[in-house]
Amino acid sequence: MEDTYRTIDNNIGEGYYTEKRSKFLAFAHHIESADEAMEIVKQYRKKYYDARHCCYAYMVGPERNEFRANDDGEPSSTAGKPILGQINSNELTDILIVVIRYYGGVNLGTGGLIVAYRTAAADAISHCKIEDRIVEEKIEYKFTYPMMNSVMHVIKSMPAKIVAQHFDNNCSITISIRKSMAEELLSRLSKIY
């Protein structure tokens, strides 16, 4: 079972491309949600209000099944799709790439636009630190106070982190563990009596 994914660190990767006086400024951000991506896009639209286009693509989640590409007025599939293509070819997720275009007065044609957006996005990615991260699962476990030592022994014997805990007559603990090991942890905890 695959429980790792590739993303970029929290530093913004910047890329640049110019063709026939058109300038393409690219920015790659680490994101956690689609809402966060849209908030960042909104900020770029405000900051670069005088630019002709603010195109973007993002991918969210370790399964890489939540994504969006936007051409922002460029001919269909000439901007967002090539940006998303760079995200896919690098197998990245939890990433947003925004490409700002300042129009230089000369039309680039669909082929030229695709090359420009793809190259700007690739340049932004090349200025990012790519990281492999682990998919973790949170498990909440309830037990009685006399079971405390046994529960703690099981947790300490595995690469698990305690996220939250409540101890009383009835105790509960929330544990974060690598997804591929969650089954084993639950199995070990269920054997405590």
UniProtKB/TrEMBL annotation:
Pfam assignment, any one: Impact_N
Family assignment from sequence similarity: Belongs to the IMPACT family.
Residues covered by the Impact N-terminal domain: 20-125
Name assigned to this protein: Impact N-terminal domain-containing protein
SUPFAM superfamilies on file: Ribosomal protein S5 domain 2-like
Species name: Prevotella lacticifex
UniProt-listed InterPro entries: Impact, Impact_N, Impact_N_sf, Ribosomal_Su5_D2-typ_SF, UPF0029_Impact_CS
Coiled coil: none
GO cellular component: cytoplasm
GO BP terms in the entry: regulation of translational initiation
